[in-house]
Amino acid sequence: MSLPPLTEAEIANRLVNVRYPDREYTLPPGLLPDPCRSAAVLIPFLRDETGGGWRILFTRRTDTLADHKGQVAFPGGRYDPGDPSPEATALREAYEEIGLESKDVRVLGRLADFRTITNFCVTPVVGVIPWPYPLRLAAEEVSRAFTIPLGWLADEANYEIKQRQLPDSHRHIPVVYFKPFDGEVLWGISGTITLALLQTLKNQEISA
Length: 208
Hints:
This protein has one domain: Alpha-Beta Complex (Nucleoside Triphosphate Pyrophosphohydrolase), CATH 3.90.79.10. 19% of the residues lie in helices and 30% in strands. It is built from four helices and ten strands; from the N terminus they run H-E-E-E-E-H-E-E-E-E-H-E-E-H. It has helices at 8-14, 86-98, 150-154, 188-201; strands at 37-47, 54-61, 72-73, 76-78, 106-110, 114-115, 120-128, 142-149, 159-165, 172-178. Strand 9 (159-165) and strand 10 form a beta hairpin. The protein is globular.
């Protein structure tokens, strides 16, 4: 899945008509009967120091968190009753987790919601941030922040979808796995969101 060079305006335009992601890599309907909890994440786009192509900022969660411990993730977290929108949730959490000031983020749009195996309904918010940036990691939540080139993520040779058996169940769910990059493995819900983002940016039809 190659991507053409994209401007901020072109990225925002592709986010206007987002459709629900392909069921090939989302949870089967009815798997989680209880109502989900609202959450949001920020997908931070940035240009590297050389002024090259787009990169995306990721974090690695600490091994002490209750959900998705030790996994590669986007900055974000659960909805707070004081948040007026998913964008507000994503920006507040990004500030708390990596010290990213809301005023420094140019929000371009959002993707459709995704349901996680831990029963969160996550809204991915796409934004552009300046780089380099003086990140301040919350040590209790984030063990590392790093970037991956958008072009590498879009290369179909760098990811695959596998069936994974749920613990204590005969059921299997599709899970997106990317190849290791810089010692990190992007997979699970963050991999799923990334793959949907790539399809959206390519302006590719996504079946409902």
